[in-house]
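2024-03-11 09:14:02 INFO receiving multi-entity request
2024-03-11 09:14:02 INFO entity count = two
2024-03-11 09:14:03 INFO echoing inputs for audit
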Amino acid sequence: MTLDEYLKAGREAVEAALEGLVPAGDERPSTIHQAMRHSLFAGGKRIRPLLFLAAAEAIGPVNDEAVEAACSLELVHTYSLVHDDLPALDNDDLRRGRPTAHKAFGEAMAILAGDALLTRAFEVLAGLEGPPDRRIALVRELATAAGTVDGMIGGQVEDLEAEGKPVEEDRLLYIHRSKTGALIRASVRMGGLWAGPSREQLDALDEYGRRIGLAFQIVDDILDVTATSAELGKTAGKDTEQEKATFPALYGLDESRRRAREHHQAALDAAAVFGERGCRLRQIADRVVDRSN
Amino acid sequence: MTLDEYLKAGREAVEAALEGLVPAGDERPSTIHQAMRHSLFAGGKRIRPLLFLAAAEAIGPVNDEAVEAACSLELVHTYSLVHDDLPALDNDDLRRGRPTAHKAFGEAMAILAGDALLTRAFEVLAGLEGPPDRRIALVRELATAAGTVDGMIGGQVEDLEAEGKPVEEDRLLYIHRSKTGALIRASVRMGGLWAGPSREQLDALDEYGRRIGLAFQIVDDILDVTATSAELGKTAGKDTEQEKATFPALYGLDESRRRAREHHQAALDAAAVFGERGCRLRQIADRVVDRSN
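2024-03-11 09:21:47 INFO inference complete, emitting structure
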């Protein structure tokens, strides 16, 4: 199977599982379920669940339960997009080429839909079939990665507070590590934890996840400068307009590209311990740095 | 120990535990931790954690870990208040006599602080010392009670959508069951689940929690009509002003009071199975219907 075929099959499995994890659009109260679905089924790349699955596969065979567990990451990622897009935060009208949740359903419903997606993520993990200690490890990993201390919310706060101020390296690195990096790293770690890793395997996944998370955010920053809105499916150039703390703003494009390559190589090195089983992790690392959106 | 002494001791234990469960106001990123603390330490009655502890005590001895688990309910309750108060929802400036989170920290930080309190609740439960299967049961119970299907968010959505429309009985009962009722019922059930209940004990706690939740919300509706803002520590008469679906609006005050008494009695009956150990549950039920704020 080529990487594209592999990713397509994984994405389809994730879509099908997500479909079953959120109540139907006519289930009471219907508006909130429609709002959740509006944002969840908007053509996302499903990178986090795919990383979960590739990490789990690096250790052992996966099944439908792994796909369900992986979906918890997409629920959390989508909640973060819905809240980030709100007028009080990034004030974005367009996401993946469609109206954002608050544009389509109003601000109150968008806030509640985000809350509901986050809540559902933990309910999904708690409701898995696997051993309780494994499920608890997944809940803990996800909550910490989504939280305030070196987690997604922490990164979002520092990002907001950095707007319009001179970019400081220390703050930029914190934002990159936390805002996107923490959840991507958790995706990889959770895939490993689901499969039951050795200490060495979990360490390797941790390093791979950390590096790939940093590379991902640097490439995101670069694309905001170099790509068009059509390519991105969201408004390009927003970072510059909002005076966000970004890699290109601090280091310039060339140095940013060099650092992305450096993290990419370190991710490949970390995945080497899995041999043939780590093939998809290495291919995904390549894709993360080479993508155009 | 009198009930007041018992509640005071419980409240102090909860305050002390909460203090340790949220990062200090100077821990990075400091603004979000200050915002979380602003709302969390605003003189709340801590009814949900106290119900958790009283339910656990009805089954067996409690310890510090029970208090920590109970705090997860206060984190979720506080998140729901922070988001409910936002301009897009209830647009409240005052809560427990103090500026609401968005008044004190701005709307973006209030949204993120609510998100963070919710996330932290699950992290706290996952990080307990007890058996993994018990912890997973608590995570699941909390997530379901806070969710969209007969849970807190579902009730909030129906409540919003009912504003300004003629009150329908079916919708009112759904709102009462879900908006406040689900989390109160979960408080009682989670206390039981923490202690390891028999089937009969969990059923009794479930019925007690359901009834007390309904009584609580009816009394809340009544107080909004009959009490002053000073007594409530929040703006009185908001329900009428916002044309909310309430018990007094549909049934009048007398019938609302009769129904509250009916649920109160059913809660006392359910708690009878615990004999002397259920004493606090019965006393708290009395307090819920007799309170003035």
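2024-03-11 09:21:48 INFO post-check: Chain B has a mean pLDDT of 94.
2024-03-11 09:21:48 INFO post-check: DSSP finds 14 helices and two strands in chain B.
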